[in-house]
Structure formats: structure tokens, C-alpha cells
């Protein structure tokens, strides 16, 4: 059997990541003056510390490591203190300024480019450091020596390479489908334990789901008189509105009807009759905060000179604070045209307190303008009496 020449094999990939595993150690040398004279090539060693799976130690040579320097310098080295072969690492040695001025003496691999790469230690006892770390006469009169004490900080970065497992063995996590699963529960009516009668139309649902989503339902089922009722009559909502509420509660989305209605309003005087407006009212009744914001977002798109007053009234009536704020700002920006609209007369007749709030907002904006704002005075809009569309900043 031969392989088909057209058979394609999916390409594979991997990624090698080289980085450093870093660790630090603080070494305090107390009694420096007593250590002097111990002999060239002899050292004081720190305790061993572990970085990158290897043990390390700091060696301090008070009389220097190099006989040729005749104890002119102190020497400092970092040594590999455990078994290892070709251990590659970056190093940093810092002699601490104990005056508090922060003028430390730092020798570092980490902050400069390396022409030949990290330093390689071949075996246990291999060292990296400086034979002429600091001139001894200067050290003894400097701020690095205080109370006969020196402090040396050391950082080791062991170079390691590995295959990036997250790329080599990635696992894709699908998007959450909990909404779809609960939606199927609603559609199949499996396990339903309550029925709603809305104008003669029956809707089957689950008390636990409704209670989890709505504080109003939770109170009805587990704290009120309707706990044991299997059928509940809803007299203040239309069937299509209650169906849209259940859709949101189970699926956490709006029905497609909401999009189609709010995007094609032909008569804004009927804005309160739209499904979106009715859902806004229902969200207030049932404590559905996310649904309220969704409705606010949809109604916000339809704010215009002719509709803003009625949308403002809805927002105020059903505690849609963000929508109300946007309506007020829009009305102020287009005051002359709004005051000549039917909606403004509607406010005067039905919501006089809300009309007063609008005028107070106008006054507040006027104060902002008088204090140096760049916006055109709202009263100037009225005085010139121009309602030409070029003067009106409508939303499309």
C-alpha cells in the first residue's frame, strides 16, 4: 500500500526558550581588620546558597588573590560549590555603600551585552570574579567599611534552556456555552416546576433559575406566599415581553426582536411602546440590572431631538441613571431644537419636575461656559432662534 502523493500532513512546531534562573545572597564580613594579614590567596567564604539547582559561595580575599599585587587589592569571587559541568551563568557583585547615599560599587554581567555570552564554569571550585576588586587603602577610608564591617551582595543567574510546553502542548478552551445550555433547558421545559399565565399564554420555567437571576423572583418563591404555587398569573406584562425576560434570564442575551424594533423606529412618540422600553420597565420591576443596562444601551442609540424627551422620561421612571445622564447632556447641547419639539411639550404636561431638572442642568452648563468653557452658550441657542439642522448635533 502506497501513500497518496496528495496527502498533506499538518505542520508541527516547537519553541526553545533560554532564560536565567536568578537568585541572590547577602554576605556580611564582620571584623575586617582582624582578617587582614591572613595571607595572599587565602579567603573568607560565605555560607553556600542555591540558585538554579547548583550551590554557590562568595569568596573574599582580604590580602588579595594575586601574589603579584602584593596585597594592594582585595579580591572577590563567586565559586561553584557543588558538582557541575559547563554551568553557564551571569553574575553580579555589589559592594554596599553603608553611608546611605546609595553609591554602591557594582560589577555586573546583567546590564551589558556579552561578546562571548555568559561565563562558563567547568567544574566544582570554578570561580568568576575580580582579583583587583577594590584598592585596599581606599577601601579602609571609604563608606563601604563601617564599624569594621563590609557588606557584599551577590546575584547569580543560571542559564537554562527548555521547550516551551505551552506552545508544544497547547489546549484550546472553547467559549462558554452555559447560556445555550440553560436556553435548551427553557425550550425543553425539562424539570420545570412553575408555570406563568400571561394573558392566557403559558410559560414553563424553573424556580431556582429565576431566583438565582432575580431578587424579585427569589423573594416570591422562597420568602413570599407564592412559594408553593405551581401557576402564577402575570397581569401587567404582555406575553412577548415576558418571553423576552425569560430569554434573558436563561441565556443572558436579548432577543432578536429587540434589535429589529429599536433600530427601525418610525415614530418616536411611540418609543414607550417598543419592546426595549417595556423590557426596561420589566428590568426595574424584577431587579435585572444587566438587562437594564442592555436596554439603556439600545435606547441610547435612538436619542434624537424628537425622541430625547420621551426617552428621558423613561430613564427617569425606571431608574436608568446612565441613560438619563446622556439624555440630559444631549438636550442641553441641542436646547433650542429640543424646546421646540413635541417631546418637550410632553415633559411639560406629564413630567414637570423632570422639565425643571433639565433646566437646572442647562443652568449648570451655562455656569461652566461662563467660567471659561469653549462650548457655545445654551442660552445663545435660544436667543438666535436658529433651529437649522446645521446647528443641531443629532445622533444618527
From TrEMBL:
The ranges of region (Disordered) come to 370-396
Q: Which SUPFAM superfamilies match?
A: POZ domain (SSF54695), TRAF domain-like (SSF49599)
Organism of provenance: Acer saccharum
Q: In which pathway does it act?
A: Protein modification; protein ubiquitination
Q: Which residues form the BTB domain?
A: 192-258
Q: What does this protein do?
A: May act as a substrate-specific adapter of an E3 ubiquitin-protein ligase complex (CUL3-RBX1-BTB) which mediates the ubiquitination and subsequent proteasomal degradation of target proteins.
Q: Could you tell me where the Polar residues compositional bias lies?
A: 372-386
UniProt-recorded name of the protein: BTB/POZ and MATH domain-containing protein 4
Q: What is the lineage of its organism?
A: Eukaryota, Viridiplantae, Streptophyta, Embryophyta, Tracheophyta
UniProt-listed PROSITE patterns: BTB (PS50097), MATH (PS50144)
Query: Organism's domain of life?
Result: Eukaryota
Coiled-coil annotation reads none
Instruction: State the similarity comment.
Output: Belongs to the Tdpoz family.
Gene Ontology annotations of biological process type = cellular response to salt stress; protein ubiquitination
Where the record annotates domain MATH, the positions are 22-156
Q: Which CDD domains match?
A: BACK_AtBPM-like, BTB_POZ_BPM_plant, MATH
Amino acid at each position: 500500500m502506497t501513500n497518496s502523493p496528495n496527502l498533506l500532513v499538518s505542520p508541527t512546531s516547537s519553541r526553545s526558550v533560554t532564560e536565567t534562573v536568578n537568585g541572590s545572597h547577602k554576605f556580611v564580613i564582620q571584623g575586617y581588620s582582624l582578617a587582614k594579614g591572613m595571607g595572599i590567596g587565602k579567603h573568607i567564604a560565605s555560607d553556600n546558597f542555591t540558585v538554579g539547582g547548583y550551590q554557590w559561595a562568595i569568596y573574599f580575599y582580604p590580602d588579595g588573590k594575586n601574589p603579584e599585587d602584593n596585597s594592594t587589592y582585595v579580591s572577590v569571587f563567586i565559586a561553584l560549590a557543588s558538582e557541575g559541568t559547563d554551568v553557564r551563568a551571569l553574575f553580579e557583585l555589589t559592594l554596599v555603600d553603608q553611608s546611605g547615599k546609595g553609591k554602591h560599587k557594582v560589577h555586573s554581567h546583567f546590564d551589558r551585552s556579552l561578546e562571548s555570552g555568559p561565563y562558563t564554569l567547568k567544574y566544582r571550585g570554578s570561580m568568576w570574579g575580580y582579583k583587583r576588586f577594590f584598592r585596599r587603602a581606599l577601601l579602609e577610608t571609604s563608606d563601604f567599611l563601617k564599624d569594621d564591617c563590609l557588606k557584599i551582595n551577590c546575584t547569580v543567574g543560571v542559564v537554562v534552556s527548555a521547550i516551551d510546553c505551552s506552545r508544544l502542548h497547547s489546549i484550546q478552551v472553547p467559549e462558554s456555552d452555559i447560556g445555550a445550555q440553560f436556553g435548551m433547558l427553557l425550550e425543553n421545559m425539562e424539570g420545570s416546576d412553575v408555570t406563568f399565565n400571561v394573558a392566557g399564554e403559558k410559560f414553563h420555567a424553573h424556580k431556582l433559575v429565576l431566583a438565582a437571576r432575580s431578587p424579585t423572583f427569589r423573594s416570591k418563591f422562597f420568602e413570599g406566599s407564592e412559594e408553593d404555587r405551581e401557576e402564577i398569573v402575570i397581569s401587567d406584562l404582555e406575553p412577548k415581553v415576558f418571553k423576552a425576560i425569560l430569554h434573558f434570564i436563561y441565556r443572558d442575551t436579548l432577543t432578536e426582536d429587540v434589535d429589529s424594533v429599536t433600530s427601525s423606529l418610525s415614530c418616536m412618540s411611540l418609543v414607550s411602546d417598543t419592546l426595549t422600553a417595556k423590557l426596561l420597565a420589566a428590568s426595574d420591576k424584577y431587579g435585572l440590572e444587566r438587562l437594564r443596562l442592555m436596554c439603556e444601551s439600545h435606547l441610547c442609540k435612538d436619542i434624537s431631538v424628537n425622541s430625547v424627551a420621551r426617552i428621558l422620561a423613561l430613564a427617569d421612571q425606571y431608574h436608568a441613571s446612565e441613560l438619563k445622564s446622556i439624555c440630559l447632556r444631549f438636550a442641553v447641547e441641542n436646547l433650542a431644537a429640543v424646546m421646540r419639539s413635541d417631546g418637550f411639550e410632553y415633559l411639560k404636561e406629564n413630567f414637570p419636575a423632570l422639565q425643571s431638572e433639565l433646566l437646572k442642568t442647562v443652568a449648570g452648563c451655562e455656569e461652566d461656559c461662563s467660567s471659561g468653557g469653549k462650548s457655545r452658550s445654551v442660552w445663545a441657542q435660544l436667543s438666535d432662534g436658529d433651529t437649522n439642522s446645521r446647528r443641531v448635533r443629532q445622533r444618527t
